[in-house]
Amino acid sequence: MRRFLDKLYLVSGALAAIFTVGVLVAVTMSIVTRQLGVHIGGLNAYAGYSMAAAGFLALAHTFKSGEHIRVTLILSSLPAKGRMRLDLCALVIACIIAGNLCWFSFKLVLDSYAYNDISTSDDATPLWIPQISMAVGTLIFFIAILDETIRRYKGIPETIQSEEAHYE
């Protein structure tokens, strides 16, 4: 199971990187076609869809890599037992927030599909299609936080090193 989850986070990060390249391609094409006097409808919209996909799909990989911003001032001043309790409490709260975000992301996709919502841009893309990346990204993020919460509850230390260790 551990290998599957680690692979899931890695694949999610790789997809985020691919969508980041998609932003670059869409913006570059937009610039080049504008200079050539050619109009390709929806390039700006697809750059936005790719940017959103990259952001949401990167959440889990970034979290598991220890790259999310954390305020460690209070944690570092507590004894080990207090640090573990506060960290566990923060992870449980993060699970609740990420779970809600995941739930409402999937609800948004289903609602957009049910109401046939389409983009108001030139591309007229059904909105549920680009919204899938948000829903999947938040689901994988929720799984990553739940995974870390369970690991900490079992007493398994953080899988990544703290921010301070990166700079020492």
From TrEMBL:
Listed A to Z, the keywords are: Cell inner membrane, Cell membrane, Membrane, Transmembrane, Transmembrane helix, Transport
Topology in the lipid bilayer is annotated as: Multi-pass membrane protein
Q: Does the keyword Transport apply?
A: yes
Stretches that traverse the bilayer: 7-31, 43-63, 84-106, 126-146
Broad class of the protein's primary localization? membrane
A Pfam family of the record is DctQ
Which segments constitute the Tripartite ATP-independent periplasmic transporters DctQ component domain? 24-153
InterPro entries for this protein = DctQ, TRAP_DctQ
Q: Which GO terms describe its cellular component?
A: plasma membrane
Q: Which domain of life is it from?
A: Bacteria
- UniProt-annotated location(s): Cell inner membrane
Q: Which GO terms describe its molecular function?
A: transmembrane transporter activity
Give the similarity note: Belongs to the TRAP transporter small permease family.
Q: What does this protein do?
A: Part of the tripartite ATP-independent periplasmic (TRAP) transport system.
Subunit note: The complex comprises the extracytoplasmic solute receptor protein and the two transmembrane proteins.
Q: What is this protein called?
A: TRAP transporter small permease protein
Q: Which organism is it from?
A: Pollutimonas harenae
